[in-house]
Amino acid sequence: MVAGDVGAVILAGGSGTRFWPASRAARPKQLLPLTSEVPLLLETAERVLPIVGGWPGIFVAGGRRTEEATRALLANLPSANLLVEPAARNTAPCIAWATAVAARQNPDRVLIVLPSDHHVGDVPGFRRALSTAIDAARGGDIVTIGIRPTRPETGFGYIELIDSAEADPRGARIAQRFVEKPDVKTAEAFVAGGRHVWNAGMFIFRARDMLDAVRRHLPDVAAMLDRFDEAARSGNEKEAVESFFSQMPSVSIDVGVMEKLDRIAVVPADFGWSDVGSWQAAWELASKRSADNAGSADLLAVDAARNHVVDATTTGRKKLVAMVGVSDLVLVETDDAVLVVPRERAQDVRLVIEELKKHRPDLL
Fold first, then answer.
1. What span, in angstroms and rounded, lies between the C-alpha atoms of 216 and 220?
2. Domain 6-274 coded CATH 3.20.20.480
3. pLDDT confidence band for 163 (50 / 70 / 90)
4. Contact at 8 Å (CB) between 66 and 31?
């Protein structure tokens, strides 16, 4: 591939409250090393570097509160390629702005939009799926990657595919419809039927094609992009974004654009994907020690198994954590907080967040 022909937009604006106390507003999930020793955001960028021809081909969109930490983590990212949103407006304005910025260099550039906080176990398989998607996007399609479901998951959105006989000749399938998070019975039917894939929030398209779709379906966003383009020509884009970005509608790319398209290509794939949605998921993906204990802490386990123990302190002096006769726990220590929860209730960290909002907002 020719350098500049393909680029990547990494969405890094999430808050990641399910990983409290390690994740905070200024240090959200994507900045944490949850599945390896490398933070998720850096892992995401490194997975696509060979495809986009190096760091100049990567754009990262995130919020002001994480700007300094993101720049420090991605030291090789060109300064202008970090797009700082002054307000959170969901994914459609964010993706549209990043697409407009990339289109100024090459409107025919194929862009790969990726969440910053997901895990990929099979990187070569991931790159093969992207290659198929890029080929379809060069032909004019707006493409998404669909993950073949491994369980009747009710927490994900699904994409229903049309009959395989109508598959795109480039190797992609065609979407029939998007389906929001189903109940258990419906999810079981989706998995058994073989026509549904998980919507993992990955999109591939030529810049000009996405901008055309935004103009058709989100005219208010398109009008703002015109204002940003005009400001960029006079060197004042930063000021224009600061003044007007928050005026765009808060809408996801799925609802604002994808669900309204007449045709969406889908590349079904299976490359060890996880959205790393909880401490339970982090334990499942982590390298295990004896008795299936995992985590970054210095752990002494006596008759203790399947625990996830994380030292997220910043002092550089790790404590020894001794566990005796306990199993299936998550224990996370930071400089100012400790979390202890059964792994099976890891999603209930959200209940802690609700209490902190009322009583200890300084710890969020």
1. 10
2. no
3. confident
4. yes
